[in-house]
Amino acid sequence: MLSEKAMAIHRRLCGVYGCPIPYFHSLDPVSELVSSLLSHRTRNAESGRAFKALRARYPDWDAVLAAPTAEIEETIAGVTWPELKAPRIQAVLRAVRERSGGLDLGFLKDLTVPEARAWLEAIPGVGPKTSAAVLSFSVLRMPALPVDSHHHRVAQRTGLIGPKVDVGPAHAILRAQLPADWDAQSLYDYHEVLMLHGQRCCHYRNLACGACAVLDLCPTGQARRPAARAAATRDLGHPAA
């Protein structure tokens, strides 16, 4: 069963990357929402710099909402598509204020995870990854599972999801493979180890299958083994077997 395979992969990768994994920051949920919007298709270093630039230039998120959009775009210029993200951030902040009466998402803690995610995803521009990130990564520390591009790639290659399953639908499929009673730390660890494995071993190109801790559980890696062995033999100057 896929659930058994998911747990086997999780245990193996936890042994490699060390669980429990400390949370990388502790932002309030609105700040995490902005951070997540900035991170779309952008490297962590660049989105982190843009987030810090916003915090340095404006005293609070109300000031970001009131600022000229061109000024926001200038401030976050280092991210991918700043011309799209600047108006989107303001539109999302505006929707939060209109729907909740302010720029405070602390009330989400009183909802179930499905209710909180539905509330966030009702805002145009907020999808499954962003809603899960707000609940999991922020100080809310709720048991939601984000799926980023690295996590998604590892899940596809290991066969946990099909080759045509996009990132959005993958959230529900991958969450259903895990214990329903897992707490926030356990789900965070699961996300982090698959993400780290995608960054450090299961690369988009130049896969390091020879160093993979879950090679025996990975159909993609197993299919590549003869080719990888032949390439290594050629590199040593010997004819391929």
In summary, what is this structure?
This protein is mostly helical. It is 60% helix and 0% strand.
What does this structure look like?
By secondary structure, this protein is mostly helical. It has a domain at 29-137: Hypothetical protein, domain 2 (Endonuclease III, domain 1, Orthogonal Bundle). Helices cover 60% and strands 0% of the residues. It has helices spanning 2-17, 29-39, 44-57, 61-66, 69-75, 82-100, 113-121, 128-137, 149-157, 167-176, 184-200, 219-235. The two termini are 35 Å apart. The model is unreliable at 229-241 (pLDDT under 50).
Topology:
Layout: H1 2-17, H2 29-39, H3 44-57, H4 61-66, H5 69-75, H6 82-100, H7 113-121, H8 128-137, H9 149-157, H10 167-176, H11 184-200, H12 219-235
Helix pairs in contact: 1-11, 2-3, 2-6, 2-8, 5-6, 7-8, 9-11
GO molecular function: catalytic activity
Domain HhH-GPD: 38-200
Pfam families: HhH-GPD
Biggest sheet: strands, sense, closure? none
CATH fold field value of the domain at 29-137: Endonuclease III, domain 1
Helix content: 55-70%
Q: How many DSSP H or I helices?
A: 12
CATH superfamily of the domain at 29-137: Hypothetical protein, domain 2
N- and C-termini, Cα separation? 35 Å
Mean residue pLDDT? 93
Q: What is the rounded Rg?
A: 20 Å
| N-to-C SSE string, H for helix and E for strand | HHHHHHHHHHHH
Shape: globular
Unreliably modeled segments: 229-241
CATH class wording of the domain at 29-137: Mainly Alpha
Tell me how many strands there are: 0
Strand content: under 5%
CATH architecture of the domain at 29-137: Orthogonal Bundle
Structural class: mainly alpha
GO molecular function: catalytic activity
InterPro entries: DNA_glycosylase (IPR011257), HhH-GPD_domain (IPR003265), HhH_base_excis_C (IPR023170)
Organism: Methylobacterium oryzihabitans
Pfam families: HhH-GPD
